[in-house]
Amino acid sequence: MMDNSAVILHKGKDKAIKNRHHWIFSGAVKTLPDFENGSILAVRSADGEFLGCAYFNKESSIIGRMISFDDRPPLETLKTNVEQALILRKSFFDDDTNAYRLINGEGDRIPGLIVDRYKDVLVVQVSTVGMEKLKPFLVDLLVQKLSPRSVYEKSNLPSRREEGLPMFEGLLYGEPVRTIEVLENGLRFLIDIIESQKTGFYLDQREMRKLVRTLSGGRRVLNAFSYTGSFSVFALAGGAVSVDSVDTSERAIELAQENCRINGFAGGNIRFHVADVFDFIRDHSLENDLVILDPPAFAKKKSDVVRACRGYKDIHRLVFQKIPPQSLVLTFSCSFFVDETLFRQVVFQAAREASRQIRLLQRHHQAYDHPVNIYHPESDYLKGLLLHVE
Prior knowledge:
Strand order of the largest sheet: 16-15-14-17-18-20-19
Structural class: alpha/beta
CATH architecture of the largest domain: 3-Layer(aba) Sandwich
């Protein structure tokens, strides 16, 4: 007898779920029961096999997101996944680092939720209706496990529009906190919780900042798209002889200056520029022999890919044409729709147009607190290349 309260998939459309992929696209669904958007429902194959539970939203092309793949109660599974996420982070960080990602969506088997920890403040991002309904349960669980001073939500995500959710930002628990100082590998950073991009800091670049520290000795560093200067601070800690930080945001540059100051770095060899990076590179003869390119996503939707690739090629060609021989370029793309293969092709096209001999030394290392679920590769968005320019 068929379960009338379950979502039934079309024949042959259950393979992804059996392979523990979290997303159910609307075209895979044969029948839906009556339900309120965000409800958790059982999922069954066309033959009636129980596949697990997902929350559903009729407004989204990704109509369902799996939160369990067995017959345990779904909230029990969620609780277990949160606990395992916290255990994983505890194994990687010591007192020298107190800012890191606690929950990374599908990477921690909790779709629709990001939680970042800044010392004793948690910052939450919720991207789906289903997770919006689960938010009170999960916030209570995080408060119980971690006893934070504050839990703040920054859900200003384009994906919320497709879900039919308004943008939201506000305090969920505890006392309001505007600015907090954190540690990353022993260096100090000020985080503006309210007026920041993302949740406040690009935590996913931690391993690359460590790399920059090892590469910067005796080099003249250009930190393009510098945001609040985290790469700049690590470059100075690694012995850079000069650092230029460039960003269009005056507030970000103010914080970059402050982050250098609180780590004891000052002087005329540390320069800050409020400017468009493309214009800055066109207008300056670059003497920098370590260039970091970490722009915001050039392709925020699939239709942006051609324009994004043009932007990536232009910025790399300009840099390759101007920097001195024996330079290093550390470059990134966080555009989900530009995959690693395409990004490499664009960078190599720029190298060819600039007529420079360039070798790939290393690919980006994912920060440990941003795990990618092996069954859900879509969460692997960030790619980077370390290049040697002859």
